[in-house]
Amino acid sequence: MTDQAYNFAYLDEQTKRMIRRAILKGIAVPGYQVPFASREMPMPYGWGTGGVQVTAACLVPEDCLKVIDQGADDTTNAVSIRKFFQRTAGVAVTEATADASVIQTRHRIPELPLREGQILVYQVPIPEPLRFLEPRETETRKMHSLEEYGLMHVKLYEDIARHGQIATSYAYPVKVEGRYVMDPSPIPKFDNPKLSGSAALQLFGAGREQRIYAVPPYTSVVSLDFEDHPFVAGKAPHDCDLCGATDSYLDEVIVDDAGGRMFVCSDTDFCRGRKDAGHIGRLGVQTDGGA
Amino acid sequence: MYVAVKGGERAIDNAHAFLAEDRRGDPQVAELSVAQIREQLRLAVNRVMAEGSLFDPDLAALAIKQARGDLIEAVFLIRAYRTTLPRLGASNPVDTAQMAVVRRVSATFKDLPGGQVLGPTFDYTHRLLDFKLAADGQVPPAPTAPVSAEKVPHVTEFLNRDGLIEAEPQSDAVPPDLTREPMELPTSRALRLQAITRGDEGFILSMAYSTQRGYGRTHAFVGELRIGAVAVEMDIPELGFSVEIGEIELSECETVNQFKGSKTEPPQFTRGYGLVFGQSERKAIAMSLVDRALRWKELGEDNIGAPAQDEEFVLMHADNIQATGFLEHIKLPHYVDFQAELELVRRLRADAATMQEAAK
Amino acid sequence: MEMTNVSVDGRTKPAGPLLSVRDLGKRYGTRIGCANVSFDLWPGEVLGIVGESGSGKSTLLSCLAGHLEPDRGQVVFDTRNGPRDTITMSEPERRKLGRTDWAFVHQNPRDGLRMGVTAGGNVGERLMAVGARHYGDIRAQALDWLGRVEIAAERIDDRPSAFSGGMQQRLQIARNLVTGPRLVFMDEPTGGLDVSVQARLLDLLRGLVREMGLSAIIVTHDLAVVRLLADRLMVMKGGHVVEQGLTDQVLDDPQHA
Fold first, then answer.
1. Pairing label, strands A119-123, A102-106
2. pTM of this structure
3. Is C12 helix (H, G, I), strand (E, B) or coil?
4. Spatial CB neighbours of B352, under 8 Å, sequence gap ≥ 6
5. Same domain, B157 and B37
6. How does residue C257 score in pLDDT terms, banded at 50, 70 and 90?
7. How confident is the model at residue C256 (pLDDT cuts 50, 70, 90)?
8. Residues of chain B with pLDDT under 70
9. Looking at the domain assignment, is residue B175 inside a domain?
């Protein structure tokens, strides 16, 4: 079967319409998980099928798409998804955050603040923030509808009682616009502050679990905490060894078998941008004459 | 010095090439044709059609070849293909009472109209490896019987006539479509049956087995198991009548289960139902047991907390395409989250060390 | 006891019963769970329901507390917004009652505790469910309540699975009472415990009932429990209430021995 046998961006228009309705409902009720009839995609569940369906429903031929996994454009799954849309939609692609109109991501929010008109699509494995406290879907949906969120704080209480601090480092639960408690997908909690008041439209797709939810532009997103144990966004206490950035999320890279390691920006586009602008880190190579 | 993880694209292309070569195996050995798979691995083809929810033996055989015999992978290929197909319409419900049976057995009656027909079954074979097959697969033709004009009515119809078994409520309501609407719990029986018939055979088998061992026991008898071809008909609005558009093979199992009676009904037998594409009798029997166990609420039975009574548990975990995708996704990179955990553990250990120091 | 309430606007109004049950019935197939049950519970009153096993007392309690849907009848509770039939009220409202004005102490503490959550977390959950967001305050209240149910402060970060049966039951009581519920349901609260442990728990319960002026409905087959705790008694047999009255009268002059 040739690629021409598939519709623009793979999904048929009926399916896209169904997904767009779910997206619109999600935007109308920020943080609420909208059930949708997730389709089988030609990639496995758990590998971004929810994000891919949301992206497919949003894409128009004029779009410019960026796909990242772990903040990087060149990780294998990001490559695979980007290729899928190049093949089925023929849209322009980019690695530059600023140039993209649609960004599909797994596990990170780009460092560069997003602007109006951009759409950030998150891949979500488990959309239900209460799932590991209460395994039953019928029960958790009831808890959301009744705003019964006491259990969520019990989890945070237990963290502090045991560890002296809230020991949740990623997929850190948030409350959206004062109503729904939401799982922001497994982004590090370092990224949580970027969720709130963003100029971009943020869409979340969970294919296997058949849920779509949304954070519209300029929506308040608050990380759950206690008054006397406020939320703290954390990162490795280092600067990027390549570009010297002090405020970006870092990956730790083991460079030898003697305990040697270096820290580099997880957002590869951000790091490259800084290096191109002449910034240089501890182990970076000069790209121009300056130091 | 640091080398960025570049070249993902080339690595993927090379892996695909390697996979294709490995799939072919030793080029000195003749290549399998799709027709060979379709004809000689027919039960595998049936399973892929059943769990792929698409009746097309040629495509299923192709999927098995492409998936190197990994049936879940083959089901996945079929599902991904199926989901893109346009829906031209819906057929009329098939009439399994009109099935041209190749196999039909009842465990509840010794003899009955239409007779017991063993058909092509492993049941009474001795499970001894047949080394002749390794050398030469030629078999003499099997004896045949003349086609019987006798009707083969459903066994449960006999019980129904005497009011001994619950009446199946008749409805012309359009059943919900699991592949077009999100599953919302609690579901209807129609939706449950859809989910189970495309569910993983191993999972459904184990769930059914657990009910037999006491986890939600329903005392099932196989009232009838029948396998054969049924006509698929479709109403053509322009013509004003229905036409036969093809024929599919189905396995159907109806169980007869014990029932004590309820508030409003005198004691009578109840039913469990299984219907699966192709010759898939293990799945059809298992399906009917699981269906029956899930009906506890509607029949006013106690929930004893058995897994097979738990609709949410069974339906949310029956689909092997969902399960395998999520299971295997944990091999994707997670280093951003792992980094966050690493920092947390380091910080907690530092705090603990400080406290120990202070305690000295 | 003076039966008046002062409403927010300062006017006094005659107080009604806290709980008013009329013609409550529940069948299991042809068998009667409970039938024709009617009674009033007044604020500050403790009602004991006694009977042999199978007499319908646990079915009745489940129907009263909204855990089981009765076939007929009314269970009218004097909510903060006036009397409401809790049978016909929406599930959200009923669940809200369940975590605010009502409390339920199960016979088996495992049914009423989160066994994987620490003692402090168990006590704190109801506080957090109604909006408490200060860790230090929640912990202080949990400590206070652990003290009131005679659990040592250093056990606050232990899980209930490490507790004895008596301690688990006391923890369950603390968890239920921490938000000051207006009505407490108790199902055989001393049921699974040793005799010596029972005595200590009873003593503790009596203290709490007196001190907090609790309104409670206690189901038990243990007459010592009702003699000590209950103002009034209902005796059940075969799903029917066969006798009711002041505890001392019923116990000292039983009509259905």
1. parallel
2. 0.82
3. strand
4. none
5. no
6. low
7. low
8. 1-7, 260-265
9. no
